[in-house]
Design brief:
Elements (H helix, E strand, L loop, with lengths): L7 H9 L17 E4 L1 E4 L6 E3 L12 H12 L9 H17 L9 H9 L7 H15 L2 E3 L3 H9 L4 E6 L4 H10 L8 E8 H4 L6 H15 L6 E5 L2 H10 L3 E5 L22 E3 L9 E3 L2
Parallel strand pairs: 1-10, 2-5, 2-7, 5-6, 7-8, 8-9
Antiparallel strand pairs: 3-4
Length: 293
């Protein structure tokens, strides 16, 4: 995005969000401490936050037509008659197809560029209005809420000699969402922004290992931390555990919410993937870590 994100969007995300509770799973935790861990990388949707649809960008069974109209109204945009949720999904699919044809196996979109395309040249929307529109729509079709114990977990991890980072399929509003829920920017919450990787910036998504390499490069360059000293925590066996293990990280499957738990039992890529640990509550993450001396 060429211009700064408006600060008021943090408050807008908070205003549009309502509490959610995770749906329990029948998965048993595996918590024997892993030795030698110096850094923890997290997935966001379905791990750090509850996602009503299970992941970013999924609308589930929500009324996308009403959400689309309400988002346009809140952003003060009058859209052409051709604009609508179907056109939005079409534009996302077309972008994916184009980038796959160019050689990107797991493409990602920049949602602001997609919204600009959906509105077309008929609507002279500013970057601020596009950002407001994207936030208004996403908060309506994919409600999210902090996973229980998130703030306490981050406080506990900050007290340990650990570097924290994020590797997430995300859009520009994802870090704003975390800031809104937790009341501080990521850096103040203990995350090293040099060790955070967001799919919309690369235009490439998990399970590509390239997005993991961005965070791992930061860990190596800034802290001298090798992949074998990193624990990656995520809820999806294919998007999280499989690629993280391919890069040499240790892994913990987060199995704390049935909405977002993805065991991928029919996916051949995951047939031989076994996470190093399993956590069913965020607080258990500390139990699965034995930091390096």
């Amino acid at each position: 995005m060429s211009q700064p994100i408006p600060d008021y969007l943090v408050g807008r995300i908070r205003y549009l969000s309502t509490p959610l509770e995770p749906c329990p799973t029948d998965v048993a935790p595996q918590l024997d401490p892993l030795p030698g861990i110096r850094a923890v990388l997290f997935d966001v949707y379905g791990t750090l936050v509850i996602s009503a649809s299970g992941d970013i960008g999924l609308a589930g069974e929500r009324d996308t037509t009403s959400a689309f109209a309400a988002a346009l109204d809140a952003a003060g945009i009058r859209a052409p008659a051709t604009a609508g949720p179907a056109r939005l999904e079409q534009a996302i699919r077309a972008s994916h197809t184009q980038r796959q044809a160019a050689g990107t196996e797991f493409p990602e979109v920049d949602i602001l560029a997609v919204w600009a395309e959906v509105l077309g040249g008929e609507v002279p929307a500013s970057q601020d209005k596009l950002a407001r529109l994207a936030v208004e729509y996403e908060c309506r079709v994919n409600p999210v809420w902090p996973m229980p114990g998130l703030a306490r977990l981050l406080a506990d991890l900050r007290r340990r000699p650990l570097v924290l980072g994020i590797v997430s399929n995300a859009q520009f509003y994802t870090p704003l969402m975390l800031e809104g829920f937790l009341g501080a920017p990521l850096a103040d919450l203990g995350f090293d922004t040099e060790c955070c990787a967001w799919s919309y910036r690369l235009l490439e998504a998990k399970p590509s290992t390239r997005i993991y390499q961005v965070a791992l490069t930061g860990l190596d360059r800034v802290h001298g931390i090798a992949p074998s000293e990193v624990l990656y925590v995520g809820n999806d066996l294919r998007n999280d555990i499989w690629p993280a293990s391919l890069t040499g990280c240790r892994t913990a499957l987060f199995a704390g919410d049935a909405r977002s738990l993805r065991l991928r039992e029919d996916d051949p890529c995951c047939a031989s993937v076994v996470p190093d640990r399993v956590v069913t509550a965020l607080s258990q993450t500390t139990d699965a870590i034995l930091p390096a001396d």
